[in-house]
Amino acid sequence: MAFSDRMGPTPVSRLLPVNLADNRSSVVQATDAGLLSGAVTLVWQHGKVLQVNEIGYRDVEAGLPMQRDTIFRIASMTKPVTVAAALSLAEEGKLALSDPVTRWLPELSDMQVLVDPAGSLEHTVPARRPITIDDLMTHRSGLAYMFSVGGPLSRAYGQVSLRQDQDHWLAELAQLPLVHQPGERLTYSHATDVLGILVSRIEGKSLHAVLTERVFEPLGMADSGFFITPDKRARAATMYRLDEETGLHHDAMSPIPVTEPRFCQGGASLVTTVDDYLRFARMLLEGGAVDGVRVLSEESVRLMRTDRLTDAQKRDPFLGMPFWVGRGFGLNLSVVTDPAKSAQLYGPGGLGTFSWPGAYGTWWQADPANDLILLYLIQNYPNLSAPAAAVAGNTSLAKLQSAQPKFVRRTYAALGL
Question: For the chain: N or C, fewer Cβ within 10 A?
């Protein structure tokens, strides 16, 4: 069912500081045009939440408005959280970034590498060295996603089911060849899902339990995890997909699970709220501790926020885009290395600004130069099978995708940055 004709008026957000009032206009316009069900955005600076916008609806059909405590699926915003948990294990001497993952993941021994990344799965050569934990954290393992590669390998990834336990999933994944030699280049991948399995095996418990003990409970992230309790169902945002002809549809995804899934994907399947993720972002911005509670050492945070790509690796496109212009990549965080060059493509952010978005339109960044954190949470299911040219030619999608950059630029302008 399409809902573009029943959006109704946008609920008025809470009282805003006058200088920030304009940053919500692009999101309101997308919502009122039926391109977006709604959003929750937040601006934090110098220790204070300056603004929270609650725009549109978390459930259009039911008429339930977005609220500050709305629960969102955050897709790849999961990845830095899993990396943080792994680094906390490293601080205890349970692993090192240089360790071969085969110590805990023997399934990944004796890996083969494609001779031609788009060629036959049978035409391979042996991996020159084992995959390391650092490779997993930087997507330089040679693993991939179905949408990040082409040819037979893409089709093979599409046949590996995520609806099984982590051990069976990893065993299937390990049968596929790597798209390139470990460490050679960056290919966006299931690497952080694999890292989550490694963390789970080291601790002898589910990844949900590990993240709860090492990240969520210390930071007070009470609404974050791989599932929600039944009493929180009404707070969950519905996932929508946008069709250019028929508007918004709510058939994109089943509801958030209310029991722990068989496979907690460390790269993709967390849910959270805007205030919960703010706590995590503040922890990274403030050197590993928030309000006196330390989660990571300053050195671990420095590693996450330090560019690790070579100049040659930055010349490779990322998902078809020149993503590394003015940017580098730390431990699953993009890092601004040249603010002027980065701003031309991705908007404002001072030197060292770090972030990592999610496929459902969720986004955040922390800017140490300006002691600033922005969060933008929506639920929009992407068409990962569509060619880039088709997406670029979809005017509805273009208008939707422009809402977040405008929110960012207008926030920086209002703050005089």
Answer: N
pTM: 0.94
Instruction: Tally the residues of the chain.
Output: 417
DSSP 167-224: HHHHHHHTTSPBSS-TTSS----THHHHHHHHHHHHHTS-HHHHHIIIIIHHHT-TT-
Q: Measuring CA to CA, which residue among 1, 2, 13 is closest to residue 38?
A: 13
Backbone dihedral angles phi then psi of residue 7, each to the nearest 5 degrees = -70, -40
CA distance 348 to 323: 15
* C-beta of residue 374 within 8 angstroms of C-beta of residue 49: no
Contacts 24+ apart (CB under 8 A), 59-66: 59/237, 59/238, 60/3, 60/6, 60/7, 60/238, 60/240, 60/248, 60/250, 61/1, 61/3, 61/6, 61/250, 63/8, 64/234, 65/11, 65/38, 66/11, 66/38, 66/39, 66/40, 66/237
Which token pair is 361?
């339109």
Query: Which range has the worst mean pLDDT, 6-15, 231-240, 251-260, 363-372?
Result: 6-15
